[in-house]
Amino acid sequence: MMNSSEAQIELHKTIEEIQNIKNIRNHFNQTMKELNAAYKKLDISARNLDKEYKDWQELESLSVKSLFHKVLGSKEEQIEKERQDYLQASLKYNEYKKSVELLEYEKSLLEKKLVDITLLENKLRTLKKKRAQEIINSNTQSGTELKQIFKKSDEKIVLRNEIKNAIIAGSNAAKMLDSMLNNLEQAKNWGNWDMMGKGRMASYNKHDAIDRSRETAYQAKHLLNRFQQELYKLGAGSFTFDIRIDSLSSFTDIFFDNLISDWIIQQKIKNAVSNVYSVKDKVKRIVQSLENDLVKVDEIIKELELAKEKLILTS
Length: 315
Hints:
Helix Hairpins
């Protein structure tokens, strides 16, 4: 093990300072919780004390006859009981009041010790980099290990970013496919109306929905290409997505007014819907797989960071 350098000594000192501030902050937060609870108890106790005092004063103002009608027993006994209740409430109130005073004092002491640790954390990051470079430059086993950890960590971080980009591209494509399916489903439903003789309005709505489907199909294809490009970066370029836009383009060339033609277009729409559902399911499965991979990569990065931290602090 190499001798302690100035960077290593300063590193450990800074870590200790940061930990002390965190301990003070935790202590302060706990004190604030206790103080808030103490104030609530004090408030309840104050209301109870006021009630007991009023009960006592009310009892002393009653005549013996009134007291007899109100409660059994002598006036003196009742007054003594109310005095004791008031005394007990007073003692409880003083206890809570003292507790609040002590917690307020503790809070004021802790507030003076609370400082912003941002500068210390920035300093710590700089010292870690400096110390890491010292270890890497040294001709030691620790230096070789740390160099390998940095290399693996950089590779995994790049991989994580590429997976995230692929997930975003896939999710965007899936949303556009959902929009396309929504329009196709409308076209399919309007087609059923037309076949049942609902007239030109149903036919118009059907073809309008197909037009929208065709427009979203172009956008979906563009987004699927983007998704495929991201997958190529990950070495997963074997995936292909075919939503057969050409078959959609011909849907609006002619108005179909008779039963046979309408049945044919219905079949084409159903086939298109089935095709798009298939592509969407494929996209979603790939995205889900990427999300699982992302979790695994994050876990590896965390493990590498812990290994890196351990080497920097102990070497």
